[in-house]
User: Fold this.
Amino acid sequence: MAYVAGGSARKRAVVIGGGFAGIHAVLGLGKLPLDVTLVDRRNYHLFQPLLYQVALAVLSPAEIAQPIRSIVRDYPNIEVLMDEAVGFDLEEQRVQVKSGAVLEYDYLVVATGATHSYFGKDEWAKLAPGLKTVEDATEIRRRVLLAFELAERQMLETGRHPALNFVIIGGGPTGVELAGAISDIAKLYMAKDFRHIDPAEAQVMILEGSPNILGMYPEDLQQMAMKQLEALGVKMRTGAHVTDVQPGYVMVGDERIDAVVTLWAAGVQASPLGKLMGLETDRRGCVLVDEHLNPKGHKEIFICGDLAHFEQDGKQVPGVAQPAMQMGDYVARRIGRLTAASLGSDGTGVEEGFRYFDKGDMATIGRKAAVAKIVWPFKAHWSGFPAWMTWLVVHIFFLIGFRSRLAVFLKWAWTYLTFTDGARLITGSLELPGWEAQEGVGEAVDVPPVDIASLKGN
Assistant:
């Protein structure tokens, strides 16, 4: 039997999603005379900007994730429900969750983010994983590390191995960060770990469909990023539209590009909840919202983060962490004023419309390499080590929890000083899509294969 949350004399806010927007909204609402329910499929808040460092074995998942219950433990009016929204009755103001419970609300905040978009080719997902979740990160880590291990084994057995080509589809911030990190671990951190292969010979390639890498960045930073990627040995091809992804290779038009690992960083689409709610959405599934982040006709509903299509100065605000945090903070303030006894319930004149305060953008490329567009507290375009240090400080600052900040700082310091990496663990399957098809591919070496039987007993 479904349980309907409600019945209290106090108003109730239901927040769906424990990402940046949801957590910021909940922490603001927790200070108000409201009953608050946070619903999320997972029991932790994930610091997504550092997820690629989990994927490339620099950090472990626990260092960039914090249990939601520990984040809100000091707010007795907040309850956490590990569940998933599956239905909405907007007229009755109710949310149905997967377990069967029905949650009543006076205010509803939906901040369920975005997922990968394969542009109608969903079958590519198994061959080219994207990077949005901890599960994605550990799968990418498994594939990248396994490619080196399989090459070492095949070199030992046959004297040759497939070329270690890593292909990344998409040249935005995620693609650039993955490319730089793969190059770093191959050339710096694993250089002395193998006996029969040279990891530094690995080749990383970015395939970008648009004319420029980091297309949303100013042109000078694009050029700086390309120079830093070239210094790392990363190849870049712009205007390269991938037409097919298969085990062991991708197709750009009629050209085949071999790949021991293919990664996806080319597109995202909004969470399906916007369409499930029956609200007006754009082509990516983002819900169209007004200046108060309300969908048309629903003053009690707020859409935040990647799920919101909010336009400012004629441009859609990007779906990244910074605006998501600000949206969550704004919604908490607005709901607080809407519930104040001295103000009207329709919200007229209650709060100025949301306005995104852009402080800048940063993308890390590799060890001591990054680009940064600084807007506040001063305007500047940085690259190289200064941009990398800025990126490091900012990301540690925004990590939730002192323990997480300290752990990440110490891990980065140790990695930087010693060129060692402690999170290179391969878990799960020991098979790599397309590896068998590439056996024998690659140039022969001058040494004969090792007689494994002769090694026994030594």
